[in-house]
């Protein structure tokens, strides 16, 4: 899945490399109840896609980072 990354990154949230995010989720550091993320490519975010730790396979293949927002 590839889509448009159009939103500026906010000043809040935690920006993580995809692999770091995947490892943290697989290790139990993040669960769906904790919050959600949005995929990032370059310096833009795709707000139309919500990333949950239980749905790692839905991260767009062209994403380089996840902007994570805790509840």
Secondary-structure topology with pairs:
Layout: E1 7-8, E2 14-17, H1 18-26, E3 35-41, E4 44-45, E5 65-70
Antiparallel strand pairs: 1-4, 2-5, 3-4, 3-5
Domain module count = 1
Radius of gyration: 11 Å
So what's the oligomer here? single chain
**Strand count, sense and closure of the main sheet?**
5 strands, antiparallel
Give the proportion of residues in helices: 10-25%
* Helix and strand pattern: EEHEEE
Quick structural overview:
The chain has 71 residues and is α+β, with helices and mostly antiparallel strands. The protein contains 1 helix and 5 strands; from the N terminus they run ββαβββ.
Describe this structure as you would to a colleague.
- This protein has 71 residues and is α+β, with helices and mostly antiparallel strands.
- The chain has one domain.
- Helices cover 13% and strands 30% of the residues.
- The protein has one helix and five strands; from the N terminus they run ββαβββ.
- It has a five-stranded antiparallel β-sheet with strand order 1-4-3-5-2.
- Strand 3 and strand 4 (44-45) form a beta hairpin.
- The radius of gyration is 11 Å and the shape is globular.
- The chain starts with 6 loop residues before the first strand and ends with a strand.
Characteristics of this structure?
about 70 residues, 5-stranded antiparallel sheet
């Amino acid at each position: 899945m590839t889509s448009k990354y159009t939103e500026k990154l906010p000043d809040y949230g935690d920006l993580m490399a995809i692999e770091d995010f995947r490892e943290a989720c697989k290790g139990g550091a993040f669960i769906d109840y904790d919050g959600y993320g949005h995929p990032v490519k370059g310096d833009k975010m795709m707000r139309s896609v919500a990333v949950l730790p239980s749905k790692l396979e839905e991260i767009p293949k062209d994403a380089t980072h996840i902007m994570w927002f805790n509840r």
